[in-house]
Design goal:
With about 350 residues, this protein is an alpha+beta fold. Helix content is about 30%, strand content about 20%. The structure holds 6-O-phosphono-alpha-D-fructofuranose (P6P).
Length: about 350
């Protein structure tokens, strides 16, 4: 019989592998695991709106029913505030960062960024959604409050990143820089158990993942590459929930693209709590993540908490092939601008 390894046991074991580790990061990861279990409980009840009530109403306990993404946001903030290891939070749901000034957190060394419920528009149609998180070591003086610069760090500065996918099963996937491991929640014991050890992304896969509905709004080189994927008889899979599309790409290979469109000239996806944490994981699993301008995502300078980027990520051979294809067929910058009507 296989030995069950819980998330807590795995994190503590891995801490022993790092002589310099002093336990703060361990505690932070475990607290995120607790928050994930709490969010999972509510996400799985979402279909019972008729029983538990719609947002803004009161449930049978007289508590006001929240939108699930706001509920997830509040629970993650509560867990991190109580952890004592986090001095600040930046969330997709909050315009600015949230300093944590509790006595317990006065010597905290880390800040946490997250999208509490990415793809939440899919909840009402029972499509899987996810929580995405990243952890940075603070740069500001530990004696004072955290500062904006603690959050505006490049993806290469991440000390840990991960996601939780609330799907047919609930899986937490994370890395602290030494590979990627996945843990499936066993509801019968309420524990995340090691289920995907040392995930490595295949060199190439059978899927390309892009919102085909924007095809005519993409630049011509992107359209040509998408046509090329179709010519290769690759299969199009696009869920519209980044965690779900990246989880599939991580496990079975493929390439995920969100190029620029007229509506999102710099791309739609957010660097801080979507692109960087998921690119960190993809690279840790042997994959690649770049912008449509061919810049490595993790090298991008951060200037705003909610800045957006184009992104192409997934199997290394497929990302390399896409780069070569676009560079071979892309129109030179000058005529490219005129081709797109940009003067
Ligand atoms: P579109 C969800 O809103 C999200 O931020 C990502 O999870 C997802 O990949 C993307 O947007 C979907 O965007 O424009 O294709 O609906």
């Amino acid at each position: 019989m296989n030995t069950i390894v819980t998330l807590d046991e795995f994190i503590i074991q891995r801490q022993k592998d790092f002589s310099y580790a002093s336990g703060e990061l361990t505690g932070l990861l475990r607290d995120i695991g607790v928050a994930a279990k709490i969010v999972n409980r509510e996400v799985n009840k979402a279909g019972l709106v008729n029983i538990i009530g719609v947002e803004g109403s009161e449930n049978s306990h007289g508590e006001s029913v929240q939108k699930l993404d706001m509920y997830a946001n509040d629970k993650l903030i509560d867990c991190l505030k109580n952890s004592g290891e986090c001095c600040g939070i930046a969330s997709e749901e909050n315009e600015s960062f949230i300093p944590i000034k509790s006595v317990a957190s006065k010597n905290a060394k880390y800040v946490v960024v997250f999208d509490p419920l990415d793809g939440s528009s899919n909840i009402d149609v029972n499509v899987s959604v996810g929580t995405i998180f990243g952890i940075y070591r603070r740069k500001s003086n530990v004696k004072g409050p955290c500062k904006l610069g603690d959050f505006l760090q490049k993806g290469t500065e991440l000390v840990a990143a991960g996601y939780v996918i609330y799907g047919t099963s609930t899986i937490l996937v994370y890395s602290t820089g030494s590979g990627v491991n996945g843990f499936t929640l066993d509801p019968s014991i309420g524990e995340f158990c090691l289920s995907h050890r040392d995930i490595k992304i295949p060199a190439r896969g059978q899927y390309y993942s892009v919102n085909q509905g924007y095809y005519l709004k993409f630049d011509v080189d992107m359209r040509r590459y998408i046509d090329y994927c179709s010519d290769l008889n690759l299969r199009l899979r696009y869920i519209g929930s980044m965690v779900s599309d990246i989880h599939r790409t991580l496990l079975v290979g493929g390439i995920f693209l969100y190029p620029n469109t007229r509506k999102y000239p710099n791309g739609k996806l957010r660097m801080l709590y979507e692109c960087n944490p998921l690119s960190y994981l993809i690279e840790q699993a042997g994959g690649k993540a770049i912008t449509t301008g061919m810049e490595r995502i993790l090298d991008i300078e951060m200037t705003d908490l909610h800045q957006r980027s184009t992104i192409v990520m997934g199997s290394p051979d497929m990302v390399d092939e896409m780069k070569a294809f676009v560079q071979r067929y892309s129109i030179p910058a000058v005529s490219k601008n005129s081709a797109n009507g940009v003067s």
